[in-house]
């Protein structure tokens, strides 16, 4: 057996979404949690705490306008002082009355221009924060057959994206996220990886696909999509989360650790965690009933754990079994790695790096939750959307 190269774990960097630290909920109720951030600064501080305990989360993604501030340069410095950087800037054209019938796809040119201008504002934010990626997810779509011209909407989308792309700097990228339904229930204008791929390839080399693991029909083979997009050189980023039903935004690896393992195996296979890889690993989650900081700690540890297991796959033996048609042997090699408990090994690695061996326990013992609950009284707790 060849020695697994666990050194690749050193390259693992998982970006945290600012909105995961705010309160969120369902259509029925948003439960508040003591200590929830009231400002983007407090969200960044929470993300920095996750990074401090895990050493795995050096960047924080922002969502505009939820995280809008007057001085992004100052916010950048604030984050750096806490040991993290500002990462992906997510645009938002899904919470404004003007976008009822679409944003970048709207039939009304003035609404399209408003949505384009919002993206230009996001690129200006990126210039100030030093962010590389503009992530676009659109709620655009229709609910009833006949409601919109499917093809016309694609044409307008292509034109709007091309206008935005012209503003993307040489060191920046546009990543286009797809989702098969919700909020639209009949047509979604960017429903699948193929549509995202078609649009980003038309734009140019600095446009990539974003794969949110919760955005597929049940039963979809996500690792196949990962393999294909890596093959095509267009996998720009992940929004990791897990789900039992629809876009549940649960802790990554909570619903189906084996699926996460399979996805990460393909990421590694395609060079996705090699140094300088174009693949950004981001979380996109909401913690509706669980505590948020430990929720994020658990999430990054789950990604680390499944990456380590995927790195344990004896790829030489696997290739040999595949080439000789040894179906059960090949499957067994993959499963051996999946069933290996890497937790003691990862605890040792943390100790070697001066990190707590058990970050969840370290957080629980730190008294941090009680401290922020006491400090963060008054003001309005952030919620998904503000
Ligand atoms: C859409 C989505 C997208 C948004 C986020 C809040 O479902 O996954 O990434 O920006 O949720
Ligand atoms: Mn997402
Ligand atoms: Mn989503």
TrEMBL record:
<keyword id="KW-0413">Isomerase</keyword>
<dbReference type="InterPro" id="IPR036237">
    <property type="entry name" value="Xyl_isomerase-like_sf"/>
</dbReference>
<dbReference type="GO" id="GO:0019301">
    <property type="term" value="P:rhamnose catabolic process"/>
</dbReference>
<dbReference type="Pfam" id="PF06134">
    <property type="entry name" value="RhaA"/>
</dbReference>
<keyword id="KW-0464">Manganese</keyword>
<dbReference type="GO" id="GO:0030145">
    <property type="term" value="F:manganese ion binding"/>
</dbReference>
<dbReference type="InterPro" id="IPR050337">
    <property type="entry name" value="L-rhamnose_isomerase"/>
</dbReference>
<dbReference type="GO" id="GO:0008740">
    <property type="term" value="F:L-rhamnose isomerase activity"/>
</dbReference>
<dbReference type="InterPro" id="IPR009308">
    <property type="entry name" value="Rhamnose_isomerase"/>
</dbReference>
<keyword id="KW-0963">Cytoplasm</keyword>
<dbReference type="GO" id="GO:0019324">
    <property type="term" value="P:L-lyxose metabolic process"/>
</dbReference>
<dbReference type="InterPro" id="IPR013457">
    <property type="entry name" value="Rhamnose_iso-rel"/>
</dbReference>
<keyword id="KW-0684">Rhamnose metabolism</keyword>
<keyword id="KW-0479">Metal-binding</keyword>
<protein>
    <submittedName>
        <fullName>L-rhamnose isomerase</fullName>
        <ecNumber>5.3.1.14</ecNumber>
    </submittedName>
</protein>
């Amino acid at each position: 057996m060849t020695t697994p190269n666990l050194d690749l774990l050193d390259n693992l960097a998982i970006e945290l979404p600012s909105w995961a630290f705010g309160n969120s909920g369902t259509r029925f109720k948003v439960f508040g949690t003591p200590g929830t951030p009231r400002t983007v600064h407090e969200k960044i501080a929470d993300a920095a705490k996750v990074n401090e305990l895990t050493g795995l989360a050096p960047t924080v993604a922002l969502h505009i306008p939820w995280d809008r501030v007057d001085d992004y340069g100052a916010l950048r410095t604030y984050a750096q002082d806490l040991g993290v950087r500002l990462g992906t800037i997510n645009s938002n054209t899904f919470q404004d009355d003007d976008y009822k019938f679409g944003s970048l796809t709207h039939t009304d040119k003035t609404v399209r221009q408003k949505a384009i201008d919002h993206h230009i504002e996001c690129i200006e934010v990126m210039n100030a924060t030093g962010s590389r990626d503009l992530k676009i997810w659109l709620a655009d779509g229709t609910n009833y057959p006949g409601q919109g011209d499917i093809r016309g909407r694609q044409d307008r989308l292509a034109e709007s994206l091309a206008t935005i792309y012209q503003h993307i700097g040489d060191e920046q990228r546009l990543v286009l996220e797809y989702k098969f339904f919700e909020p639209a229930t009949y047509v979604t204008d960017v429903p699948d990886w193929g549509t995202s791929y078609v649009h980003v390839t038309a734009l140019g080399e600095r446009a990539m696909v974003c794969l949110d693991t919760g955005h597929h029909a049940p039963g979809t083979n996500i690792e196949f999509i990962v393999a294909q997009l890596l093959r095509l050189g267009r996998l720009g980023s992940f929004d990791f989360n897990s789900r039992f039903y629809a876009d549940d935004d649960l802790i990554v690896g909570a619903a189906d650790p084996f699926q996460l393992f399979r996805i990460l195996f393909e990421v590694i296979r395609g060079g996705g965690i090699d140094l300088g890889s174009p693949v950004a690993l981001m979380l996109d989650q909401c913690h509706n009933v669980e505590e948020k900081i430990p929720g994020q700690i658990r999430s990054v540890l789950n990604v680390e754990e499944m990456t380590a297991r995927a790195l344990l796959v004896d790829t030489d033996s696997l290739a040999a079994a595949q080439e000789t048609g040894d179906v059960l042997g090949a499957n067994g090699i993959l499963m051996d790695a999946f069933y290996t408990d890497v937790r003691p090994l990862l605890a040792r690695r943390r100790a070697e790096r001066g990190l707590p061996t058990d970050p969840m326990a370290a957080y629980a013992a730190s008294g941090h939750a009680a401290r922020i609950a006491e400090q963060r009284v008054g003001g309005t707790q952030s919620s998904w959307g503000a």
